[in-house]
Design brief:
The protein is an alpha+beta fold. About 30% of the residues lie in helices and about 15% in strands. The strands form five sheets. Strands 2-1-3 form a three-stranded antiparallel sheet. A three-stranded antiparallel sheet has the order 5-4-6. A hairpin with a 5-residue loop joins β1 and β2. The chain is elongated and about 115 Å long.
């Protein structure tokens, strides 16, 4: 039998009073972890010293000595002494105070003392009427973890099983419709009283952007629909004549995004019609972002494109003039007086790199060339 146990006590430095007696091995006497609340309060207010009373003991000898010392010093919770110990010592948990039992019930640390422990409660399948003696048995039956099964029974997550707590089962209630527990983030339609699991289901069914719907449900913008989070739903919630209410949904694409990618685009010179921006970009060999910037007016519209919704047949559109756009881009050699239509020709004739010459004329570098913009 190993003789690796010892018995120790803790003494307060301010009053020189013994406040704890324990047993252990290794560095247990000096460890602050695994202590009760009263011990931590004293250790937080003042320093304490550790005194080893007996060492090289067997487990039984250490238990007997600990029980003896605790009975001599007495416990604060029982009103018999000065120790903050919660038990009489040794391996047992006998003579717990009434306050200790109540605290263990509230925190559910006393697993076997608390009769209200949810894991020990029975569950029942409302379809097959099979009764499960504990959470673990029901979790194994449905192939889920005990934590997930417990959360389903409590209604914290969507209950994909047909089980409920046994004490919640009502023999007179009609359970022909499978039980369905909702979460706080489920969405309620106040018009039809239907409940959706999440925002994605509503967005897919009613063709609404998830971001816009989430902003309305969270109160960031005005909610013009009949949808509410389940946590916010009450009988006094506003009612609408339809699910979408006053929500305007005409400008939304099939994916629910308000963009130009799904709108028709017209070339107002050749009158060619393109169904989407992707097809337009593929036809002209440009990127979609380049086409989008042309339609927004951020860059010159060199392809003569316009959205079909903005096209007016009675209006006369002026086609793109490349020469007019290049006007003012000519350069002049101040030494010879020669004018160049483009920088490439000037770069080849003067022997200066094109990018370097462009930086000089734009002011990014010091202009050491004889060229100027005209």
């Amino acid at each position: 039998m190993e003789r690796n146990k010892y018995v120790y006590r803790h003494r307060r430095s301010d009053t020189n009073e013994i406040f704890y007696v324990g047993l252990g091995k290794g560095k247990r006497a000096y460890n602050r972890n695994g202590r009760n609340k009263n011990w931590k309060e004293i250790a937080h207010r003042c320093d304490y010293s550790v005194e080893i009373l007996a060492s090289d003991l067997t487990h039984e000898e250490a238990c007997e000595l600990e029980i003896l010392l605790i009975s001599l010093y007495g416990r604060i919770d029982l009103g018999t002494g000065c120790l903050v110990n919660m038990t009489t010592g040794g391996d047992g948990m006998i003579e717990l105070s009434a306050d200790s039992i109540q605290k263990m019930k509230e925190t559910k640390t006393g697993k076997y003392l608390c009769k209200e422990n949810k894991k020990s409660k029975k569950a029942i399948d409302i379809v097959t009427l099979q009764v499960f003696d504990c959470i673990n048995e029901g979790a194994n039956h449905y192939g889920v973890s005990p934590g997930d099964f417990c959360a389903m029974l409590k209604g914290k997550v969507y209950n994909k099983t047909t089980a409920i707590y046994f004490d919640e089962y009502d023999i007179h209630k009609d359970y022909s419709i499978p039980i369905r527990r909702v979460t706080r983030l489920s969405v309620v339609d106040t018009y039809t009283q239907l409940i959706y699991d999440n925002i994605s289901q509503v967005s897919t069914k009613f063709n609404i952007s998830k971001k816009k719907l989430r902003d309305m449900l969270m109160g960031r913008v005005k909610n013009t629909t009949s949808f509410l989070y389940y946590r916010d739903y009450t009988e006094k919630s506003p009612k609408y004549e339809s699910s979408l209410g006053d929500f305007k949904n005409e400008k939304l694409s099939p994916k629910g995004k308000d963009n130009n990618k799904s709108k028709e685009i017209i070339n107002f010179i050749t009158f060619e019609v393109f169904e989407t921006m992707c097809k337009t970009a593929a036809f002209y060999g440009r990127s979609r972002s380049n086409i989008a910037r042309m339609l927004k007016g951020e860059i010159p519209n060199s392809l003569n494109l316009i959205l079909s919704s903005d096209y007016d047949s009675t209006k006369q559109y002026i086609p793109w003039d490349n020469k007019k756009y290049r006007k003012g881009k000519k350069t002049k050699n101040t030494l010879t007086g020669k004018v160049y239509d483009c920088l490439r020709k000037a770069s080849e004739e003067l022997g200066i790199e094109l990018n370097k010459l462009r930086n000089m004329l734009s002011g990014a570098q010091i202009n050491t060339s004889p060229l100027v913009r005209i």
